[in-house]
């Protein structure tokens, strides 16, 4: 099945659309508070299609992600029981959320800073930061650093090696996609069995 090649082509087409930066901003904003898909799925093909705008795209992604993170923080701070908790349960992130809350108790600022590099969705960190009433200013600073580093590194890697890797990615996209799905399933099983 060539599902991943079809999805790759579709996202690449979206990245050429004249409103693509707005779509990128919307996905980045939403992902930080309630949307399950990371903005990298738009950032990467946009940098591939318009490499001269790589840093602009990374900036859009970072700023939008931080603004969405502030919304997630406010949801956690003022309405965790009403809005945040149902989001956590809807995405099946109860265990991740509990782990993040314990990280906040020990690491606070550093937990948010490192959130951009963990496999745990950033929205869980934003909700937990608000729910545990972390001070807003350190939260925003940590988000700027963590999210900024992540998205600029992604844009830089794609900018410098993306065009050389694109033919390989296109050729093996379905194998890469199915291998990723298999790894996620195996990691989930291992976590379920041993943790």
From TrEMBL:
Entry annotated with the keyword Ribonucleoprotein: no
Pfam families for the chain: VTT_dom (PF09335)
InterPro entries registered for this protein in UniProt: DedA_domain, VTT_dom
Keywords: Membrane, Transmembrane, Transmembrane helix
GO CC annotations, alphabetized: plasma membrane
VTT domain residues: 39-157
Domain of life the protein comes from: Bacteria
Entry keyword annotation includes Glycoprotein: no
Bilayer-spanning residue ranges: 20-37, 57-80, 100-122, 134-160, 172-194
Protein name listed in UniProt: DedA family protein
Species whose genome carries this gene: Candidatus Berkiella aquae
Lineage: Bacteria, Pseudomonadati, Pseudomonadota, Gammaproteobacteria, Candidatus Berkiellales
């Amino acid at each position: 099945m060539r599902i991943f090649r079809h999805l790759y082509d579709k996202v690449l087409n979206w990245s050429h659309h004249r409103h693509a930066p707005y779509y990128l901003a919307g996905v980045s904003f939403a992902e930080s508070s309630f949307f399950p898909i990371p903005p990298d799925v738009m950032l990467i093909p946009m940098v591939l299609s318009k490499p001269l705008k790589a840093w602009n795209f990374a900036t859009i992604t970072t700023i939008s992600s931080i603004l969405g993170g502030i919304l997630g923080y406010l949801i956690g701070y003022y309405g965790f029981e009403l809005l945040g908790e149902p989001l956590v349960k809807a995405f099946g992130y109860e265990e991740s959320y509990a782990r993040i809350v314990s990280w906040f108790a020990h690491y606070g600022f550093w937990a948010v800073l490192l959130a951009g590099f963990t496999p745990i969705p950033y929205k869980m960190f934003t909700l937990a930061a608000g729910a545990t009433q972390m001070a807003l200013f350190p939260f925003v600073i940590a988000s700027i650093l963590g999210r900024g580093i992540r998205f600029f590194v992604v844009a830089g890697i794609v900018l410098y090696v993306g065009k050389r890797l694109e033919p390989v990615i296109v050729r093996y996209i379905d194998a890469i996609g199915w291998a990723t799905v298999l790894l996620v399933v195996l990691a989930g099983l291992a976590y379920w069995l041993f943790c």
